[in-house]
Give the backbone structure.
Amino acid sequence: MNKNTTFVIWSYDFDWKIGGYVALHLLAKKLADRGYRVYCTCNRLMRYSKATPIGYRRAEEMSRRDNVVTLYPEVVPGNPLGAKNVVRWVLYYPAGHGVGDEIYNDSELVVTFQDKFVNGTIYDGCPLVSLIDSNTRNICNMNLPQRPNNAILVKKGHAPDLESRLEKYVKPYFEINERTIHFDKVIEASNDISDLNKVLGEIDYFVSFDMASYHSVFAALAGCKSLIVPKDGETKDSLIERMPCFNYGIAYGFDDLKHAEDTIHLVKDHVDSLQKDNDSSIARLEDAINKRFF
């Protein structure tokens, strides 16, 4: 593979609220920054991206060329563009959102955002392509004199065990009352990350049922007492292994709040250092593509 290789990325209009969309656009930006020609099937790119938006008809025509690599996220079923060289990026469990395929075509190169998403499948051990935008330039502790509110985030934590986790790990320690904000609604109503920062500045406890949401890091960066609601069968070590951005400033349950308090000053430098590992992920992707297709 050389700089004449072209990438077509099946993507959607950039939306900072949706982690999968951010990942696709961040990949497009990083590849374009490396000198590749990169095209995205969308109308709106992330800021400062050198990728080019295109429609599906042009994407279909380009994807059938020998030197073009087409990347689909796991939610896209089949090969709708009829692409010759297909990379499947598993950003969540195969068919985990109720869409997409569980088994991909043998001709596809499968890579994953997290090892856990493919553990126990035939794709276990596939290349890891994990990108992060630390967003430390947009989120900070505003040091307001009071934090009158608390917040609960659900997002992907709406699994069948939500009620049992609430009863076992939240209610014995935390009162849900009129001061408790449903943070999913805050995200939906916010125009940008700076809007989130203003709300987080008034939040004391930030309690997340989602065990893979970067909003827990946002909360820590903003000075909240940020914690993940434990889940039976998941240890703190296993959580940190797959979500290293949770290592500092974030508690795994209310019993772990002292750790979060003692390490909150380390969060910014830590997530900024993780962002530097993006280049290693891109290099793994390049190597895997070169071995499979070129």
